[in-house]
Amino acid sequence: MLSTVRCRLSSWRLLSSISSTTSSTIKYSTLPELTKDRYPNVRRSDYSIIKSNHLEFFKDLLGEHRLITDENECLAYNTDWIKANRGYSSCVLKPKSTEEVCSILKFCYDNNLAVCPQGGNTGLVGGSVPVFDEVILSMSLMNKIISLDETAGILTCEAGCVLENLDNYLAERELMMPLDLGAKGSCQIGGNVATNAGGLRLLRYGNLQGNVLGLEAVTPNGRVVDCLSALKKDNTGLHLKHLYIGTEGSLGVVTKVCIKCPPKPKAVNLAFLGLNSFENILKVFKKSRHELGEILSSCEAIDADSLAVTTEHLKLKSPLDKFPFYMLIETHGSDNTHDEEKLNRFLGKVMEDGSVLDGIATNEPSKMKDIWDLRERITEGYLHDGYVFKYDLSLPLEHFYSLVPIMKDRVGRDAIRISGYGHIGDGNVHLSICVKEFSTEVLNKIEPFIYEYTSKLKGSISAEHGIGFRKTNYVHYSKSQEAIDIMTNIKCIMDPKGILNPYKVYPPSRRWSNFK
Ligand code: FAD
Ligand code: MLT
Ligand code: ZN
Question: Where is the FAD-binding PCMH-type domain (predicted)?
């Protein structure tokens, strides 16, 4: 079946060409309003305001080229990728070593300056940019690979390495990164670790909490926490690395990472399928687990409106006619004959029983990339619609798509488009409600309803993107009060002055109760 695949696709630019860290890519006309104006209830805490003596210190430490104070240059670091949040920091610092990170944090701690750690600035919850004027600590120059154990598949590198660069480096050595996401051309491994990023192949390779063997971090007062173990087994006391995985730069700055890298699969196959109902998506996913077993590496679902943002706005070409739903099913294995046979048998069955109406399958790299672009660039496509209210929920599989019709009823004509797509294999839906521009009225129709709904179903209000700035009011929908108390106490112990990534992750009512 694979050889009969239609070949009408052409290639187009990589997501990396829309890198978020070059000021030229951000147009003034499309800038979001300042976060402090959009969310007037959030008040600046009494951190120091940056002064010339502070800047003198940073200049002495980093030199003038690694201290950015120019307003225009700062703009790209102040604005997040989906243009939903904007701070007004006038100080971006670009350390090149752990020692420099230590000196910066110690100085900020002693001088009561708030700090916002920043990786590739592709985060989707407003965690990577300042809320007010926090000093931005950009990790982009800490981008060296330190070592690779090719036999064990263990990579050690600095936190600012871009995910795609690491993957390319490993590919030359028959290895791969255990995670892949649409932002790979810009996001950094430190940012991935800080957000415990999921992505497109979590189903097969697991999350970063499992794949990160060790890391090095710097505490808010400038001390190095060396947990850079490269051991697969190490049960010596508390696993402190978990304090930094998924805590979004609120407890420390990740400076180095040691990560398990699986072998690059010798055989990769990808099927793109058209279906007429969500029920059939569930049937096909179930069948794929049973029929493809150990070679299943990805299972993604897309509805027609989500696909449309890539075909309409980005002019990508879909190889299939229009269907209400689509799926991407990918296999990673070591024997192509075996994998093709399995995939063909599976596809034969799902077409025969009517759950799939049409589909193509390919193992040609350029065609697979073209198909993956249709999925990976949905987030980018949405930016062309206007403002996107984005939700990243874990829901029981039977409810994965249920919010789309519900939100269509609630938000109605206020929205340009309401759609759902995501990692069906992980029960993680991305719900997008697109409007021309941000509106509090629409926001109130969506929140807190969407979180109440998720909570009733025992889902998660943030499956993989984190809490950042925008979801701090809703943590209690996914965590008990006791859990929130423990989280806040840990923050108080590790960052008693609360200088790291303030206004984020922790619920506002609990945030500073112990500090000030
Ligand atoms: P940033 O956005 O710069 O920062 C994210 C958070 O981590 C912030 O709170 C920041 O303060 C903190 N941080 C960054 N670096 C460090 C550090 N070294 N030490 C301490 N804290 C740090 N996410 C997924 O989980 N799955 C996906 O499939 C996915 N796809 C995406 C596709 C697109 C097109 C885009 C734009 C985003 C996508 N994301 C996805 C979200 C985002 O890419 C991830 O959260 C990513 O891990 C963020 O990495 P970053 O380097 O850009 O971090
Ligand atoms: C994805 O899976 O594409 C990302 O998590 C980004 C998004 O939610 O759009
Ligand atoms: Zn995702």
Answer: 85-264
Atom of ligand 2 minimally distant from the CA of 198: 5
Tell me if 404 CB under 6 Å of ligand 1. Answer: no
Best of 17, 97, 122 for a ligand 1 pocket test (most atoms within 8 Å of beta carbon): 122
- Tell me how many domains the chain contains: 5
- Whose C-alpha lies nearest to ligand 1, atom 25? 197
CATH number at residue 423: 3.30.70.2740
Nearest in space to 104 (alpha carbons), one of 142, 149, 71 = 142
Task: Work out the average pLDDT over 263-288.
Answer: 98
Confidence at residue 514, expressed as pLDDT on a 0 to 100 scale: 44
CA-closest candidate to residue 274, choices 211, 328, 207 = 328
Residue 509 sits in which domain range?
481-515
Separation of 154 CA from ligand 1 center, angstroms?
A: 22
Per-residue pLDDT tens over the stretch 99-120: 999 999 999 999 999 999 999 9
Residue finishing a domain among 138, 160, 178: 138
Instruction: Read off the CATH number of the domain in which 72 is found.
Output: 3.30.43.10
Q: What is the pTM of this model?
A: 0.94
Residue among 134, 136, 117 nearest 193 (CA): 117
Instruction: At 221, give phi and psi (nearest 5°).
Output: -100, 20
Asked whether residue 171 falls in the same domain as residue 74, the answer is no
Q: Are residues 149 and 255 in the same domain?
A: yes
- 204 C-alpha to center of ligand 2: Å? 18
